[in-house]
């Protein structure tokens, strides 16, 4: 057993996020065969990911605030604390805070043996973000 030290909060990179987003690594690289990855992610109002996909899918669990999520070709959906959202492998989507609220979620996904676990695309434009 190992009680792991708290790691510093990390600012999410501007290449992949719009606005101010911070994450804490809860479960980073684990000994093989584990590929589990878990982060707490905090979005400030108006902040969101770029469009992206996850090789093995992703489970999000909203813990605080008010958020938005959209899959390519779908409606923007408001997400609330206590809700769990599953995005299947390869599905293009984005997630973030509403324009007026913070949002915090747990992000759970898996690394893969070769290739990127997350594939990043275009930023979510203000026009896309406000199209509700
Ligand atoms: Mn995602």
TL;DR?
This protein has 132 residues and is mainly beta. It is 3% helix and 45% strand.
Account of the protein in words:
- There is one protein chain.
- The protein has 132 residues and is mostly beta strands.
- Helix content is 3%, strand content 45%.
- It is built from one helix and 13 strands; from the N terminus they run E-E-E-E-E-E-E-E-E-E-E-E-E-H.
- The strands form four sheets. A six-stranded antiparallel sheet has the order 1-3-4-12-7-10, with no helix packed on it.
- Strand 8 and strand 9 form a beta hairpin.
- The protein starts with 9 loop residues before the first strand and ends with a helix.
- The model has no long low-confidence stretch (mean pLDDT 96).
- Manganese (II) ion binds next to strand 6 and strand 11.
SSE layout and pairing:
Layout (H helix, E strand, L loop, with lengths): L9 E2 L5 E2 L2 E7 L8 E8 L4 E2 L2 E3 L3 E8 L1 E5 L5 E3 L4 E4 L5 E5 L5 E8 L7 E3 L5 H4 L3
Bound molecules: manganese (II) ion (MN).
């Amino acid at each position: 057993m190992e009680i792991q030290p708290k790691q510093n909060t990390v600012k999410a990179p501007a290449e992949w996020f719009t606005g101010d987003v911070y994450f804490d690594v809860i479960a980073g690289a684990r000994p093989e065969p584990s590929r589990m990855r878990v982060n707490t992610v905090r979005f400030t109002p108006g902040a969101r990911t770029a469009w992206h996909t996850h090789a093995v899918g992703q489970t999000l669990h909203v813990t605080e605030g008010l958020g938005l999520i959209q899959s390519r070709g779908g409606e923007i959906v408001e997400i609330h604390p206590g809700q769990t959202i599953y995005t299947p492998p390869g599905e293009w989507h984005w997630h973030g805070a509403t324009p007026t609220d913070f949002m915090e979620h747990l992000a759970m996904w898996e690394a893969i043996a070769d290739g990127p676990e997350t594939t990043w695309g275009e930023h979510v434009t203000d026009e896309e973000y406000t199209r509700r």
